[in-house]
Amino acid sequence: MGLSSWPSDSELDKIKKNVAEMAGVSINAVKIVVSPYRICPLGAHIDHQGGIVSAMTINKGIILGFVPSTDSQVLLKSGQFSGEVRFRVDQIQLPKHAAKSNGKTQENGSSDTMEECKWGSYAKGALYALQRGGNDLKQGITGFICGTEGLDSSGLSSSAAVGIAYLLALESANNLTVSPTGNIEYDRLIENEYLGLKNGILDQSAILLSSYGCLTCMDCKTKIHKLIHPPKYETEKNAETKFPYKILLSFSGLKQALTTNPGYNRRVTECREAAEILLKAAGKEAEPILSNVEQEEFEAHKSKLEPNLARRAEHYFSENTRVIKGLEAWSCGNFEEFGKLISASGLSSIQNYECGCEPLIQLYEILLKAPGVYGARFSGAGFRGCCVAFVNSDNADKAASFVKNEYFKVQPELASHLNQDTAVVICDSGDCARII
Ligand code: GLA
Protein backbone atom coordinates (compact mmCIF):
# COMPACT_ATOMS: atom_id res chain seq x y z
CA MET A 1 0.00 0.00 0.00
CA GLY A 2 1.36 3.41 -0.87
CA LEU A 3 1.24 6.65 0.98
CA SER A 4 -1.81 8.84 0.75
CA SER A 5 -2.06 12.19 2.53
CA TRP A 6 -5.58 11.54 3.78
CA PRO A 7 -6.89 11.42 6.46
CA SER A 8 -4.92 13.88 8.54
CA ASP A 9 -4.29 13.35 12.26
CA SER A 10 -6.55 16.26 13.15
CA GLU A 11 -9.46 14.79 11.16
CA LEU A 12 -8.98 11.47 12.94
CA ASP A 13 -8.74 13.06 16.40
CA LYS A 14 -12.00 14.92 15.90
CA ILE A 15 -13.87 11.74 14.97
CA LYS A 16 -12.28 9.71 17.79
CA LYS A 17 -13.29 12.33 20.36
CA ASN A 18 -16.91 12.27 19.15
CA VAL A 19 -17.15 8.48 19.35
CA ALA A 20 -15.41 8.31 22.73
CA GLU A 21 -17.94 10.80 24.07
CA MET A 22 -20.94 8.98 22.55
CA ALA A 23 -19.86 5.57 23.87
CA GLY A 24 -18.26 6.68 27.13
CA VAL A 25 -14.98 4.97 26.30
CA SER A 26 -11.40 6.14 25.96
CA ILE A 27 -10.16 7.57 22.67
CA ASN A 28 -7.82 4.59 22.27
CA ALA A 29 -10.74 2.17 22.06
CA VAL A 30 -12.08 3.87 18.90
CA LYS A 31 -11.47 2.14 15.58
CA ILE A 32 -11.50 4.02 12.31
CA VAL A 33 -12.71 3.03 8.84
CA VAL A 34 -11.52 5.19 5.97
CA SER A 35 -13.49 4.84 2.75
CA PRO A 36 -12.29 7.09 -0.06
CA TYR A 37 -14.30 8.68 -2.85
CA ARG A 38 -13.66 7.40 -6.37
CA ILE A 39 -13.26 8.77 -9.85
CA CYS A 40 -13.77 6.89 -13.09
CA PRO A 41 -11.57 8.41 -15.80
CA LEU A 42 -12.72 5.93 -18.47
CA GLY A 43 -15.53 3.37 -18.55
CA ALA A 44 -18.55 5.54 -17.76
CA HIS A 45 -21.97 3.88 -17.67
CA ILE A 46 -20.80 0.54 -18.97
CA ASP A 47 -20.34 -1.33 -15.69
CA HIS A 48 -24.01 -2.32 -15.58
CA GLN A 49 -23.58 -3.86 -19.05
CA GLY A 50 -20.59 -5.98 -18.03
CA GLY A 51 -18.04 -3.65 -19.64
CA ILE A 52 -14.46 -2.94 -18.66
CA VAL A 53 -13.96 0.12 -16.47
CA SER A 54 -11.06 2.10 -15.08
CA ALA A 55 -11.13 3.83 -11.72
CA MET A 56 -9.09 5.17 -8.86
CA THR A 57 -9.75 6.66 -5.46
CA ILE A 58 -8.80 10.15 -4.34
CA ASN A 59 -7.30 11.36 -1.07
CA LYS A 60 -10.68 12.48 0.28
CA GLY A 61 -13.71 10.56 1.46
CA ILE A 62 -15.63 9.12 4.36
CA ILE A 63 -14.27 8.47 7.85
CA LEU A 64 -16.29 6.34 10.26
CA GLY A 65 -15.12 6.10 13.87
CA PHE A 66 -16.74 3.28 15.86
CA VAL A 67 -16.62 1.01 18.86
CA PRO A 68 -18.52 -2.28 19.13
CA SER A 69 -21.61 -1.86 21.34
CA THR A 70 -22.14 -3.97 24.41
CA ASP A 71 -25.24 -5.48 22.73
CA SER A 72 -26.98 -5.51 19.31
CA GLN A 73 -27.75 -1.76 19.33
CA VAL A 74 -26.46 0.49 16.53
CA LEU A 75 -26.19 4.18 17.38
CA LEU A 76 -24.88 6.60 14.74
CA LYS A 77 -24.30 10.31 14.43
CA SER A 78 -23.10 12.23 11.41
CA GLY A 79 -20.85 15.22 10.82
CA GLN A 80 -23.07 16.32 7.92
CA PHE A 81 -26.59 15.45 9.02
CA SER A 82 -28.49 16.18 12.17
CA GLY A 83 -30.21 13.65 14.40
CA GLU A 84 -29.14 10.17 15.30
CA VAL A 85 -29.86 6.77 13.83
CA ARG A 86 -30.72 3.82 16.06
CA PHE A 87 -31.59 0.25 15.15
CA ARG A 88 -30.66 -3.27 16.23
CA VAL A 89 -28.58 -5.69 14.19
CA ASP A 90 -30.93 -8.53 15.10
CA GLN A 91 -33.85 -6.76 13.36
CA ILE A 92 -34.44 -8.26 9.90
CA GLN A 93 -34.00 -5.61 7.19
CA LEU A 94 -36.19 -5.64 4.07
CA PRO A 95 -35.43 -3.86 0.76
CA LYS A 96 -36.27 -0.21 1.13
CA HIS A 97 -37.22 0.29 -2.51
CA ALA A 98 -39.98 -2.33 -2.28
CA ALA A 99 -41.81 0.11 -0.03
CA LYS A 100 -40.78 3.26 -1.95
CA SER A 101 -40.62 2.46 -5.61
CA ASN A 102 -38.11 5.14 -6.62
CA GLY A 103 -35.83 5.29 -3.56
CA LYS A 104 -32.39 6.34 -4.75
CA THR A 105 -28.85 6.79 -3.62
CA GLN A 106 -27.04 10.06 -3.02
CA GLU A 107 -25.47 9.91 -6.46
CA ASN A 108 -28.64 9.89 -8.50
CA GLY A 109 -31.20 11.64 -6.37
CA SER A 110 -33.35 10.51 -3.52
CA SER A 111 -37.06 10.37 -2.97
CA ASP A 112 -36.57 10.54 0.77
CA THR A 113 -37.75 13.66 2.45
CA MET A 114 -36.44 13.02 5.94
CA GLU A 115 -32.76 13.63 6.51
CA GLU A 116 -32.62 10.77 9.00
CA CYS A 117 -33.95 8.32 6.39
CA LYS A 118 -31.38 9.44 3.86
CA TRP A 119 -28.26 8.90 5.86
CA GLY A 120 -29.50 6.10 8.09
CA SER A 121 -30.51 3.94 5.14
CA TYR A 122 -26.92 3.08 4.18
CA ALA A 123 -26.21 1.55 7.58
CA LYS A 124 -29.46 -0.42 7.43
CA GLY A 125 -28.61 -1.39 3.85
CA ALA A 126 -25.24 -2.74 5.02
CA LEU A 127 -27.03 -4.81 7.65
CA TYR A 128 -29.48 -6.02 4.97
CA ALA A 129 -26.59 -7.13 2.73
CA LEU A 130 -24.80 -8.96 5.55
CA GLN A 131 -28.03 -10.70 6.55
CA ARG A 132 -28.70 -11.65 2.89
CA GLY A 133 -25.20 -13.17 2.88
CA GLY A 134 -26.28 -15.49 5.70
CA ASN A 135 -24.51 -13.68 8.55
CA ASP A 136 -26.22 -13.61 11.91
CA LEU A 137 -24.98 -10.38 13.47
CA LYS A 138 -25.00 -10.04 17.24
CA GLN A 139 -22.92 -6.96 17.86
CA GLY A 140 -23.97 -3.40 17.07
CA ILE A 141 -21.72 -0.33 16.84
CA THR A 142 -21.63 3.18 18.20
CA GLY A 143 -20.25 5.34 15.44
CA PHE A 144 -19.68 8.83 14.08
CA ILE A 145 -19.47 9.27 10.31
CA CYS A 146 -18.09 12.25 8.47
CA GLY A 147 -17.37 13.05 4.80
CA THR A 148 -14.80 15.50 3.44
CA GLU A 149 -16.47 18.91 3.67
CA GLY A 150 -18.18 20.12 0.47
CA LEU A 151 -17.72 16.90 -1.47
CA ASP A 152 -20.86 14.93 -0.63
CA SER A 153 -23.62 14.31 -3.22
CA SER A 154 -21.10 15.09 -5.88
CA GLY A 155 -20.61 12.29 -8.38
CA LEU A 156 -17.69 10.87 -6.39
CA SER A 157 -19.75 7.95 -5.17
CA SER A 158 -20.15 9.06 -1.62
CA SER A 159 -23.02 6.55 -1.45
CA ALA A 160 -20.80 3.51 -2.08
CA ALA A 161 -18.10 4.94 0.21
CA VAL A 162 -20.66 5.24 3.02
CA GLY A 163 -22.10 1.76 2.39
CA ILE A 164 -18.62 0.22 2.45
CA ALA A 165 -17.67 2.07 5.64
CA TYR A 166 -20.66 0.55 7.45
CA LEU A 167 -19.95 -2.92 6.03
CA LEU A 168 -16.36 -2.83 7.27
CA ALA A 169 -17.34 -1.56 10.72
CA LEU A 170 -20.14 -4.12 11.23
CA GLU A 171 -17.87 -6.91 10.00
CA SER A 172 -15.10 -5.86 12.36
CA ALA A 173 -17.46 -5.63 15.36
CA ASN A 174 -18.76 -9.14 14.59
CA ASN A 175 -15.36 -10.71 13.82
CA LEU A 176 -16.33 -11.46 10.23
CA THR A 177 -13.55 -11.78 7.69
CA VAL A 178 -14.80 -10.73 4.26
CA SER A 179 -12.62 -10.40 1.15
CA PRO A 180 -12.79 -7.29 -1.05
CA THR A 181 -14.67 -9.40 -3.61
CA GLY A 182 -17.17 -10.36 -0.89
CA ASN A 183 -17.69 -6.72 0.00
CA ILE A 184 -18.09 -5.74 -3.66
CA GLU A 185 -21.04 -8.15 -3.74
CA TYR A 186 -22.41 -6.90 -0.40
CA ASP A 187 -22.31 -3.31 -1.62
CA ARG A 188 -24.07 -4.45 -4.81
CA LEU A 189 -26.84 -5.85 -2.60
CA ILE A 190 -27.15 -2.49 -0.82
CA GLU A 191 -27.47 -0.57 -4.08
CA ASN A 192 -29.35 -3.00 -6.36
CA GLU A 193 -31.59 -4.79 -3.88
CA TYR A 194 -31.93 -2.58 -0.82
CA LEU A 195 -32.08 0.80 -2.61
CA GLY A 196 -33.31 -0.34 -6.04
CA LEU A 197 -30.67 1.30 -8.22
CA LYS A 198 -29.74 -0.77 -11.27
CA ASN A 199 -26.11 0.26 -11.19
CA GLY A 200 -23.01 -1.82 -11.81
CA ILE A 201 -20.02 -2.59 -9.60
CA LEU A 202 -17.71 0.25 -10.64
CA ASP A 203 -17.98 2.35 -7.48
CA GLN A 204 -17.39 -0.30 -4.85
CA SER A 205 -14.68 -2.02 -6.92
CA ALA A 206 -12.76 1.25 -7.09
CA ILE A 207 -13.17 1.91 -3.37
CA LEU A 208 -12.22 -1.60 -2.26
CA LEU A 209 -9.45 -2.44 -4.72
CA SER A 210 -7.58 0.77 -5.52
CA SER A 211 -3.97 1.33 -4.60
CA TYR A 212 -2.13 4.66 -4.40
CA GLY A 213 -0.98 5.87 -7.83
CA CYS A 214 -2.44 2.93 -9.75
CA LEU A 215 -5.34 2.77 -12.14
CA THR A 216 -7.76 -0.01 -11.19
CA CYS A 217 -9.17 -1.93 -14.13
CA MET A 218 -12.27 -4.05 -13.51
CA ASP A 219 -13.91 -6.37 -16.02
CA CYS A 220 -17.47 -6.11 -14.73
CA LYS A 221 -18.50 -9.33 -16.49
CA THR A 222 -15.76 -11.70 -15.31
CA LYS A 223 -15.14 -9.64 -12.12
CA ILE A 224 -11.41 -9.96 -12.74
CA HIS A 225 -9.44 -6.87 -11.87
CA LYS A 226 -5.89 -5.66 -12.20
CA LEU A 227 -3.92 -2.66 -10.99
CA ILE A 228 -2.11 -0.70 -13.69
CA HIS A 229 1.01 0.90 -12.25
CA PRO A 230 2.29 4.12 -13.77
CA PRO A 231 5.97 4.41 -14.71
CA LYS A 232 8.29 5.09 -11.75
CA TYR A 233 8.26 8.70 -10.58
CA GLU A 234 10.50 10.56 -8.23
CA THR A 235 9.68 10.35 -4.51
CA GLU A 236 9.73 13.52 -2.42
CA LYS A 237 11.34 13.87 1.01
CA ASN A 238 8.03 13.26 2.82
CA ALA A 239 7.79 9.96 0.87
CA GLU A 240 4.96 11.12 -1.40
CA THR A 241 5.45 10.29 -5.05
CA LYS A 242 5.80 13.27 -7.33
CA PHE A 243 3.26 12.40 -10.02
CA PRO A 244 3.21 14.75 -13.03
CA TYR A 245 -0.58 15.15 -12.79
CA LYS A 246 -3.20 16.31 -10.34
CA ILE A 247 -6.87 15.43 -10.24
CA LEU A 248 -9.14 18.45 -10.54
CA LEU A 249 -12.73 18.31 -9.30
CA SER A 250 -15.00 21.15 -10.42
CA PHE A 251 -18.36 21.37 -8.74
CA SER A 252 -21.53 22.47 -10.51
CA GLY A 253 -23.55 23.34 -7.40
CA LEU A 254 -26.28 20.93 -8.53
CA LYS A 255 -27.01 18.57 -5.68
CA GLN A 256 -30.57 17.46 -6.20
CA ALA A 257 -31.40 15.21 -9.11
CA LEU A 258 -34.35 16.44 -11.13
CA THR A 259 -37.23 14.42 -9.79
CA THR A 260 -38.88 14.55 -13.20
CA ASN A 261 -35.82 12.90 -14.75
CA PRO A 262 -35.85 9.13 -14.26
CA GLY A 263 -32.22 9.34 -15.37
CA TYR A 264 -29.95 6.51 -14.45
CA ASN A 265 -32.27 3.50 -14.40
CA ARG A 266 -33.92 4.51 -17.68
CA ARG A 267 -30.57 4.46 -19.50
CA VAL A 268 -29.82 1.01 -18.06
CA THR A 269 -33.15 -0.23 -19.42
CA GLU A 270 -32.37 1.26 -22.85
CA CYS A 271 -29.00 -0.54 -22.96
CA ARG A 272 -30.75 -3.80 -22.15
CA GLU A 273 -33.35 -3.18 -24.87
CA ALA A 274 -30.55 -2.59 -27.39
CA ALA A 275 -28.79 -5.78 -26.24
CA GLU A 276 -31.99 -7.81 -26.57
CA ILE A 277 -32.56 -6.70 -30.18
CA LEU A 278 -28.91 -7.26 -31.14
CA LEU A 279 -28.77 -10.71 -29.52
CA LYS A 280 -31.98 -11.75 -31.30
CA ALA A 281 -30.64 -10.51 -34.63
CA ALA A 282 -27.41 -12.46 -34.06
CA GLY A 283 -29.40 -15.61 -33.19
CA LYS A 284 -27.98 -15.77 -29.65
CA GLU A 285 -29.64 -16.51 -26.34
CA ALA A 286 -28.02 -14.75 -23.40
CA GLU A 287 -28.77 -12.22 -20.68
CA PRO A 288 -29.63 -8.96 -22.48
CA ILE A 289 -26.57 -6.92 -21.57
CA LEU A 290 -24.27 -5.37 -24.14
CA SER A 291 -21.19 -7.34 -23.09
CA ASN A 292 -22.95 -10.43 -24.46
CA VAL A 293 -22.96 -8.82 -27.92
CA GLU A 294 -19.77 -8.90 -30.01
CA GLN A 295 -18.66 -5.63 -31.59
CA GLU A 296 -19.05 -7.24 -35.08
CA GLU A 297 -22.62 -8.26 -34.22
CA PHE A 298 -23.35 -4.67 -33.23
CA GLU A 299 -21.89 -3.38 -36.52
CA ALA A 300 -23.86 -5.95 -38.55
CA HIS A 301 -27.21 -5.34 -36.87
CA LYS A 302 -27.20 -1.78 -35.58
CA SER A 303 -29.59 -0.67 -38.32
CA LYS A 304 -32.28 -2.70 -36.53
CA LEU A 305 -32.04 -0.38 -33.49
CA GLU A 306 -34.08 2.80 -33.00
CA PRO A 307 -31.68 5.79 -33.20
CA ASN A 308 -31.62 6.36 -29.42
CA LEU A 309 -30.86 2.70 -28.69
CA ALA A 310 -28.15 2.70 -31.38
CA ARG A 311 -26.52 5.67 -29.62
CA ARG A 312 -26.54 3.89 -26.23
CA ALA A 313 -24.87 0.85 -27.82
CA GLU A 314 -22.41 3.08 -29.67
CA HIS A 315 -21.41 4.56 -26.32
CA TYR A 316 -20.90 1.09 -24.85
CA PHE A 317 -18.69 -0.24 -27.64
CA SER A 318 -16.66 2.94 -28.12
CA GLU A 319 -16.17 3.34 -24.35
CA ASN A 320 -14.84 -0.20 -23.99
CA THR A 321 -12.29 0.56 -26.72
CA ARG A 322 -11.29 3.81 -24.99
CA VAL A 323 -10.73 1.96 -21.71
CA ILE A 324 -8.37 -0.56 -23.37
CA LYS A 325 -6.42 2.26 -25.06
CA GLY A 326 -6.41 4.27 -21.83
CA LEU A 327 -4.86 1.46 -19.78
CA GLU A 328 -2.01 1.30 -22.28
CA ALA A 329 -1.51 5.08 -22.20
CA TRP A 330 -1.54 5.08 -18.37
CA SER A 331 1.05 2.34 -18.09
CA CYS A 332 3.39 4.39 -20.36
CA GLY A 333 2.73 7.63 -18.45
CA ASN A 334 1.27 9.14 -21.63
CA PHE A 335 -1.12 11.61 -19.98
CA GLU A 336 -1.75 13.55 -23.21
CA GLU A 337 -3.21 10.43 -24.80
CA PHE A 338 -4.96 9.37 -21.59
CA GLY A 339 -6.54 12.83 -21.33
CA LYS A 340 -7.72 12.85 -24.96
CA LEU A 341 -9.51 9.55 -24.33
CA ILE A 342 -11.17 10.96 -21.18
CA SER A 343 -12.47 13.97 -23.13
CA ALA A 344 -13.72 11.68 -25.92
CA SER A 345 -15.47 9.63 -23.26
CA GLY A 346 -17.06 12.83 -21.95
CA LEU A 347 -18.28 13.71 -25.43
CA SER A 348 -19.75 10.26 -25.94
CA SER A 349 -21.60 10.57 -22.61
CA ILE A 350 -23.13 13.79 -23.93
CA GLN A 351 -23.84 12.76 -27.52
CA ASN A 352 -24.46 9.01 -27.34
CA TYR A 353 -25.42 8.23 -23.77
CA GLU A 354 -27.23 11.57 -23.50
CA CYS A 355 -26.81 11.96 -19.78
CA GLY A 356 -25.71 15.00 -17.84
CA CYS A 357 -27.31 18.41 -17.78
CA GLU A 358 -26.48 21.94 -18.93
CA PRO A 359 -24.28 23.06 -15.99
CA LEU A 360 -22.22 19.84 -16.16
CA ILE A 361 -21.79 20.17 -19.93
CA GLN A 362 -20.69 23.80 -19.48
CA LEU A 363 -18.15 22.75 -16.84
CA TYR A 364 -16.86 20.03 -19.17
CA GLU A 365 -16.38 22.58 -21.97
CA ILE A 366 -14.67 25.07 -19.66
CA LEU A 367 -12.29 22.39 -18.36
CA LEU A 368 -11.23 21.51 -21.89
CA LYS A 369 -10.06 25.12 -22.34
CA ALA A 370 -8.31 25.38 -18.96
CA PRO A 371 -4.48 25.58 -18.90
CA GLY A 372 -2.70 22.27 -18.52
CA VAL A 373 -5.83 20.09 -18.59
CA TYR A 374 -5.12 16.73 -20.25
CA GLY A 375 -8.77 15.72 -20.39
CA ALA A 376 -12.10 15.98 -18.58
CA ARG A 377 -15.51 14.40 -18.25
CA PHE A 378 -18.52 14.24 -15.91
CA SER A 379 -17.66 12.47 -12.71
CA GLY A 380 -20.09 9.66 -11.98
CA ALA A 381 -23.52 9.52 -13.50
CA GLY A 382 -23.41 13.14 -14.66
CA PHE A 383 -26.86 14.23 -13.57
CA ARG A 384 -25.44 16.48 -10.89
CA GLY A 385 -22.26 16.98 -8.90
CA CYS A 386 -18.89 17.59 -10.48
CA CYS A 387 -16.63 17.12 -13.47
CA VAL A 388 -13.24 15.44 -13.09
CA ALA A 389 -10.12 16.42 -15.01
CA PHE A 390 -6.50 15.34 -15.13
CA VAL A 391 -4.22 18.35 -15.20
CA ASN A 392 -0.47 18.87 -15.45
CA SER A 393 0.61 19.40 -11.82
CA ASP A 394 2.50 22.62 -12.67
CA ASN A 395 -0.70 24.18 -14.02
CA ALA A 396 -3.18 22.87 -11.45
CA ASP A 397 -3.63 26.17 -9.57
CA LYS A 398 -3.98 28.21 -12.75
CA ALA A 399 -6.50 25.74 -14.16
CA ALA A 400 -8.52 25.82 -10.93
CA SER A 401 -8.88 29.63 -10.96
CA PHE A 402 -9.67 29.64 -14.67
CA VAL A 403 -12.52 27.15 -14.18
CA LYS A 404 -13.89 28.98 -11.14
CA ASN A 405 -14.01 32.31 -13.00
CA GLU A 406 -15.44 30.96 -16.24
CA TYR A 407 -18.11 28.86 -14.52
CA PHE A 408 -19.25 31.90 -12.58
CA LYS A 409 -19.80 33.72 -15.89
CA VAL A 410 -22.14 31.03 -17.28
CA GLN A 411 -23.86 29.91 -14.05
CA PRO A 412 -23.71 32.86 -11.63
CA GLU A 413 -26.60 31.62 -9.55
CA LEU A 414 -25.30 28.06 -9.02
CA ALA A 415 -21.69 29.23 -8.64
CA SER A 416 -22.54 31.80 -5.98
CA HIS A 417 -24.02 29.09 -3.77
CA LEU A 418 -20.83 27.05 -3.86
CA ASN A 419 -18.39 27.21 -0.98
CA GLN A 420 -15.57 29.16 -2.63
CA ASP A 421 -12.93 27.01 -0.91
CA THR A 422 -14.31 23.80 -2.37
CA ALA A 423 -15.81 24.96 -5.69
CA VAL A 424 -12.75 23.56 -7.45
CA VAL A 425 -10.62 21.04 -5.57
CA ILE A 426 -7.16 19.82 -6.50
CA CYS A 427 -6.44 16.33 -5.21
CA ASP A 428 -4.27 13.25 -5.55
CA SER A 429 -4.77 9.57 -5.91
CA GLY A 430 -5.80 7.60 -2.81
CA ASP A 431 -5.74 4.08 -1.41
CA CYS A 432 -8.46 1.49 -0.81
CA ALA A 433 -11.05 1.47 2.00
CA ARG A 434 -9.65 -0.05 5.17
CA ILE A 435 -9.66 -0.06 8.94
CA ILE A 436 -6.72 1.87 10.31
C1 GLA B 1 -22.84 5.79 -10.92
C2 GLA B 1 -23.13 4.30 -10.74
C3 GLA B 1 -22.00 3.43 -11.30
C4 GLA B 1 -21.66 3.83 -12.73
C5 GLA B 1 -21.49 5.35 -12.84
C6 GLA B 1 -21.34 5.82 -14.28
O1 GLA B 1 -21.74 6.14 -10.15
O2 GLA B 1 -23.33 4.03 -9.37
O3 GLA B 1 -22.36 2.08 -11.21
O4 GLA B 1 -22.59 3.32 -13.65
O5 GLA B 1 -22.59 6.05 -12.29
O6 GLA B 1 -20.20 5.32 -14.84
From TrEMBL:
Residues 329-407 form the GHMP kinase C-terminal domain. Pfam families: GHMP_kinases_C, GHMP_kinases_N. GO terms for cellular component: cytosol. SUPFAM superfamilies: GHMP Kinase, C-terminal domain, Ribosomal protein S5 domain 2-like. Keywords: ATP-binding, Carbohydrate metabolism, Kinase, Magnesium, Metal-binding, Nucleotide-binding, Transferase. The keyword ATP-binding applies. GO terms for biological process: galactose metabolic process. Its EC number is 2.7.1.44. Residues 122-209 form the GHMP kinase N-terminal domain. One of its GO terms (molecular function) is galacturonokinase activity. InterPro entries: GHMP_kinase_C_dom (IPR013750), GHMP_kinase_C_sf (IPR036554), GHMP_kinase_N_dom (IPR006204), Mevalonate/galactokinase (IPR006206), Ribosomal_Su5_D2-typ_SF (IPR020568), Ribsml_uS5_D2-typ_fold_subgr (IPR014721). The keyword Kinase applies. PANTHER family: GALACTURONOKINASE, MEVALONATE KINASE/GALACTOKINASE. This is Galacturonokinase. It comes from Helianthus annuus (Common sunflower).
